[in-house]
Amino acid sequence: MTTNNPDLSLSLHGEQSEVALITLNRATKRNALNDGLILAIRDVFQNLPKSVRAAVIHGNGDHFCAGLDLSELSERDAGEGVLHSRMWHAALDCVEKGTVPVVAALHGAVVGGGLELASACHIRVADESTFFALPEGTRGIFVGGGGSVRVPKLIGAARMADMMFTGRVYNAADGERVGLAQYLVPTGTALEKALELATRIATNAPLTNYALMHALPRIAEQPSDHGLFTEALMASIAQSAPEAKARVRAFLEGKAAKVKS
Ligand code: 1HE
């Protein structure tokens, strides 16, 4: 299935078309994100088909994404630069605060805006070819796609500053160790693993997934007292949903899977 931009495609997977696979299709430019591609990402996440319960994003070719298309950087003035960055923010907010959890399947370069895109996703699966970097520091620019907000939440401000001060590149294993990815898998298997995870996520109650996407990150940023109160509200809403009651009943009747080690 194509989107309105040939550099981005969408296909539906699973018995009920419950998993959306979104593919960056600009391998000759290492999936560098030009304005058209950023707007296409915004549009695709804003308009996912109703059947979709979870999504996967990955890149065609040897790399996930080489970041901002540097050939477009040329002649923006300060005001245009603000609007450009805000355009990225709006698009990546549609990924992070959209309707369904998003799993990023990573390989090769996950750099600059590519890391900003990956960090807007809810789960990152990196294969062993993956490397993470923020070359903005050495290109004389700054992150503008939400990186200074999202990356420190994954690895802390000190590690992010180090990446930008020194041009440090994290390989896949070190990236997983510091928190840039939650899963590390053999080269060539990130997409398979990401689809497996998304298929599993799609079986959760939608309200639980919604709470994980929209309540948890807000609670984590609230003062403890506020956070505990918000948690109580969310817990109460979730457990009063008919689907939650049915799932708990199924467990008590021995009809639902147990937690396995
Ligand atoms: C690009 C870009 C790009 C590749 N914009 N065209 N991002 C960067 O600073 C990363 C810049 N890219 C790289 O360091 C390398 O390209 C890679 C390590 C990702 C891959 O290397 P390689 O050897 O596989 O490919 P290549 O030969 O370097 O690139 C292939 C083509 O893609 C080539 O174009 P061609 O016409 O000569 O074939 C490259 O110019 C093109 N290409 N990366 C434009 N990024 C919201 S703020 C976000 C801030 C940022 O993201 S700053 C950018 C950070």
Instruction: Fill in the CATH topology of the largest domain.
Output: 2-enoyl-CoA Hydratase, Chain A, domain 1
Determine the oligomeric state from the structure: single chain
N-C termini distance: 39 Å
CATH architecture of the largest domain, by name, is: Alpha-Beta Complex
Radius of gyration: 19 Å
Number of helices: 11
Please write out the topology.
Layout: E1 8-13, E2 19-24, H1 35-46, E3 54-59, H2 78-96, E4 102-106, E5 109-111, H3 113-120, E6 123-127, E7 131-133, H4 136-139, H5 147-155, H6 157-166, E8 170-171, H7 172-178, E9 183-185, H8 190-201, H9 206-221, H10 224-240, H11 242-252
Parallel strand pairs: 2-3, 3-4, 4-6, 5-7, 6-9
Antiparallel strand pairs: 1-2, 7-8
Helix pairs in contact: 1-2, 3-5, 5-6, 9-10
The protein binds 3-methylmercaptopropionate-CoA (MMPA-CoA).
Descriptors for this entry?
single chain; 261 residues; alpha/beta; 2-enoyl-CoA Hydratase, Chain A, domain 1; Lyase 2-enoyl-coa Hydratase, Chain  A, domain 2; 2 domains; three-stranded mixed sheet; 48% helix; globular; binds 3-methylmercaptopropionate-CoA (MMPA-CoA)
Describe the structure.
The protein has 261 residues and is α/β, with parallel strands linked by helices. It has 2 domains: 8-201, 2-enoyl-CoA Hydratase, Chain A, domain 1 (Alpha-Beta Complex); 206-252, Lyase 2-enoyl-coa Hydratase, Chain  A, domain 2. It has 11 helices and 9 strands. The chain has helices at residues 35-46, 78-96, 113-120, 136-139, 147-155, 157-166, 172-178, 190-201, 206-221, 224-240, 242-252; strands at 8-13, 19-24, 54-59, 102-106, 109-111, 123-127, 131-133, 170-171, 183-185. The strands form 2 sheets. It has a 6-stranded mixed sheet with strand order 1-2-3-4-6-9, with helices on both faces. Strand 2 (19-24), helix 1 (35-46) and strand 3 (54-59) form a beta-alpha-beta unit. The relative contact order is 0.11. 3-methylmercaptopropionate-CoA (MMPA-CoA) binds at residues 29-30, 32, 62-63, 66-71, 88, 109, 111-113, 135-136, 139, 143-145.
